[in-house]
């Protein structure tokens, strides 16, 4: 069976559509994510420490939870923020706390490290506008 007109039209539409992008969840303008601990400049002995994450004017919810004005924490270690139009990567520099955790035990090697928090929605997408902490520096001895 031949499809003289339909197949080229479908193929052309598929090629012209471009990649699909996920819809970003909105966040209140006054939403803030911040470090409870550690503080900027903290010296950590031994490399293992608790990161305690705070959030104002939004709620924490596990990944996959479709409730307005909620999200879950992501800890960025020694990296810049990812593109705000793509899901937050999941690797050793982008730790996901998709169960809704507000604290986590982290281990880092000796040296200076940067830490930053970025709230992600149910699909690990940054909100619009992004809810991101300032970048802090810690030193592990």
From TrEMBL:
Domain DUF4399: 51-141
Pfam families xrefs: DUF4399
InterPro entries tied to this protein: DUF4399
Keyword Signal part of the UniProt annotation: yes
Keywords: Signal
Highest taxon, organism lineage: Bacteria
Residues of the signal peptide: 1-22
Descriptive protein name: DUF4399 domain-containing protein
């Amino acid at each position: 069976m031949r499809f003289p007109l339909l197949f080229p039209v479908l193929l052309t539409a598929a090629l012209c559509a471009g990649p699909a992008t996920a819809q970003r969840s909105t966040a209140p303008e006054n939403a803030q994510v911040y470090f409870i601990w550690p503080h900027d400049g903290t010296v950590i002995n031994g490399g293992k420490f608790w990161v305690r994450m705070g959030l104002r004017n939004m709620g924490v919810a596990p990944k996959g939870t479709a409730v307005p004005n909620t999200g879950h924490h992501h800890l960025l270690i020694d990296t810049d923020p990812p593109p705000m139009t793509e899901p937050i990567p999941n690797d050793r520099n982008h730790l996901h706390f998709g169960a809704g955790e507000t604290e986590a035990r982290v281990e880092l090697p000796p040296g200076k490290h940067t830490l930053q928090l970025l709230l992600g929605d149910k699909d690990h997408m940054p909100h619009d506008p992004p809810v991101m902490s300032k970048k802090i520096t810690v030193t592990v001895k």
